[in-house]
Write a structure and sequence with these properties.
Blueprint (H helix, E strand, L loop, with lengths): L1 E5 L4 H17 L4 E6 L13 E6 L7 H10 L4 E6 L11 E6 L9 H8 L14 H10 L6 E5 L11 H13 L3 E4 L5 H13 L4 E2 L6 H9 L3 E5 L2 H8 L4 E5 L4 H4 L6 E5 L14 H16 L5
Parallel strand pairs: 1-2, 1-4, 2-3, 4-5, 6-7, 6-9, 7-8, 9-10, 10-11
Helix pairs in contact: 1-3, 1-8, 4-7, 5-6
Protein name: Glycosyl transferase
Pfam family, one: Glyco_transf_9
InterPro entries: Glyco_trans_9, LPS_LOS_Heptosyltrfase
Length: about 300
Amino acid sequence: MRILFITSNRLGDAVISTGVLDRLQQRFPSAMFTIVCGPVAAGLFSADPRCERIIVMEKKRHDRHWLDLWCECVRRRWFMVVDLRGSLLSYGLRTKHRVIVRGGRRPGRRVEQLGSALGYLPAPMPRVWISKVQSETAEALLPSEHQWCALGPTANWDGKIWPAERFVEVARALQAEGFRVIVLYGPGEAEKLRAEPVLQAVPEAVDLGGDRTLGEVAALLGRCALFVGNDSGLMHLAAAAGTPTLGLFGPSKASEYAPAGVCADFVAAPGVEGGAPIDGLSVQVVLDAAKAVIAKNLHGEVA
């Protein structure tokens, strides 16, 4: 029994989709899955024992990537095709069951939109898959004798990035509370440059960003008592890893993309959602919210 699962090219949306993928795996325990996603998200599924193949779909001119994907999948008869991209491709494949999530999203959080589309209510929370090697690597890098806090000072566009000097203030305040700080960011020179002001101002912080696999990053996050970061794929990964997570929102929509996890929350800059400048978010508001997230985790409350 084989299921084709087509998810997002973007990391954050791909992480959000792992909740419904996990529920499908529970529903069909003998099924093996082929995952279709973008190159940034591919590592998210590499440690999943039920994933027999990952098809990386890179965008091409004239939507030729969809034709290439159809050629990859058309020879097989599928038990089920789950298409979260709402494409026409799914109609051209042989399958016993077909679930297509089209545009025109319902109001509410994206995780709830996907859960509702597949008939799963309440919405299943995102999850991560971590290999034994990735877990051991994370344990060696972040030993348990310290209390670790992760900062995510980058994002995929500058409007979503809280000022670096405020991340530095948060780092200093958390260090005074006994935390050791790590800094995480994505691959590529642009991400490194965005994180550099924080790393330079807090030289004792552990630089763990860059070219690590997503499974390893998830394992690192799982060893942290707190994550504070901009609205990004990394924020969603932290929440999925079970890390107490505080997402920082400005012009992006927290009502749709707030982090979803066992202990996750957000703070948003004052103003109209979708247009509020993130620099309207104060350090004190972030610190107070971070302490509240930690307290919720200590008391076993679900955010």
